[in-house]
Automatic annotation (TrEMBL):
PANTHER family xrefs: EG:BACN32G11.4 PROTEIN, ENOYL-COA HYDRATASE
Family, similarity comment: Belongs to the enoyl-CoA hydratase/isomerase family.
The protein, known as: Enoyl-CoA hydratase
Pfam families from the UniProt entry: ECH_1 (PF00378)
Species whose genome carries this gene: Deinococcus malanensis
InterPro entries the record matches: ClpP/crotonase-like_dom_sf, Enoyl-CoA_hydra/iso, Enoyl-CoA_hydra_C
Length: 255
């Protein structure tokens, strides 16, 4: 259900149920969470890419896999989706959502959960939950209004409109759109460029931004002052300053 590959410090996790547009079953969700935690702990990994095989990114919950289950909706979310979203947001390394195709339902939440969102031209996002009279979950109610505001989020959720890549770029649901034909190479090149950046500083940046999403300016200033000390005490900072003075590119991959 999940393919794992590592190249040049970039760990790519590929959801692999292409016949169902990578609709998520428990096995996929639990192994994704496990893989995310492992990648976070693995010193050889600097960037994590989450993508899908075939023409879909992730079509959300596998609707063939829910009937007859002996868990409530609440239990199911707390057992599978929520730990995954927490693992992505809590991961100390940048996570790239590489949205190669349609992202629907909880798949849309996964497309929004990454630190960087790269889309293929033919990708699309659908907050499709209301088609089956459910509410957006797996973090969609938190991510989407922060990106597009309450009202557009409500409309996208209520009407389950399909957001195509040009509009996604305009709305701020993704950072870059690449041609389908070269998508994988573009994602790998982007990820490798990110992998060359200072890992400790990026980890602290992610921590500070995550906290700031729900904090006051006063609290953000306090946390910045605290974490800047951690960054400043790290060898990466010395390397950056030395490289600047020596008029050379810093090497943040050593150490
Ligand atoms: C699928 C699915 C799918 C199974 C495509 N399941 N097979 C959390 C907790 C607990 C319960 C419930 O939910 C949640 C969170 C959620 O994620 S709720 C939202 C669940 N997802 C959906 O409702 C999306 C259902 N899929 C669709 O509406 C369409 O497939 C989309 C719009 C995503 C793509 O449409 P098309 O490009 O036209 O592809 P398709 O519909 O032909 O799908 C291709 C195949 O994939 C097809 O199988 P088949 O054997 O006919 O070729 C679909 O049945 C299968 N598939 N999504 N979620």
């Amino acid at each position: 259900v999940l393919l794992t590959e590592t190249h040049a410090g970039v760990r790519t996790l590929t959801m692999n149920r292409p016949d169902k547009l990578n609709a998520a079953n428990d096995a996929l969700l639990l192994s994704l969470t496990e893989a995310m935690t492992q990648a976070d702990a693995d010193v050889s990994v600097r960037v994590i890419v989450l993508t899908g095989s075939g023409r879909g990114f992730c079509a959300g919950q596998d609707l063939g896999d829910v009937s007859g289950r002996n868990m409530t909706f609440t239990e199911h979310l707390n057992h599978t989706y929520n730990p995954l979203i927490r693992a992505i947001r809590g991961c100390g390394k940048p996570v790239i959502s590489a949205v190669n195709g349609v992202a629907a339902g909880a798949g849309a939440s996964l497309a929004l959960a990454g630190d960087v969102r790269l889309w293929a031209r033919s990708a699309a996002l659908i907050e499709i939950f209301s088609n089956i009279a459910l509410i957006p979950d797996s973090g969609s109610t938190w991510f989407l209004p922060r990106l597009v505001g309450y009202h557009r989020a409500f409309e996208l959720m209520a009407l389950a409109d399909k957001v195509r890549s040009d509009e996604a770029l305009r709305l701020g649901l993704c950072e870059h759109v690449f041609p389908d034909e070269t998508f994988q190479q573009e994602v790998q090149a982007y990820a490798e460029a990110l992998a060359a950046r200072p890992a400790n500083a990026l980890k602290l940046t992610k921590q500070a931004l995550n906290a700031a999403m729900t904090s006051t300016l006063d609290a953000a200033l306090d946390l910045e002052a605290e974490l800047q000390q951690v960054a400043g005490d790290h060898w990466e900072h010395q390397e950056g300053v030395t490289a600047f003075k020596e008029k050379r590119a810093p090497d943040f991959r050593r150490g």
